[in-house]
Amino acid sequence: MVSLEEKAIATYDAEMYYARYEGKAEGMILGMLSRGHSPQAVADFTGIPLARIEQVIIH
Questions:
Q1: Which of 58, 52, 40, 59 is nearest to 32 (CA)?
Q2: How far is CA 46 from the centre of its chain?
Q3: pTM for this one?
């Protein structure tokens, strides 16, 4: 049986992993855009959906 503390730690770890992943993806998107790549080229190169790239541009 998993204690509440262990569950909280596992949840926190998962959330931090996701946040780091998202941060890296956004950084890569912004970096490529700042180097003159089009949103479509970024999507083609990275496999990230164009809609997600457009969200990063808006925010």
A1: 40
A2: 12
A3: 0.71
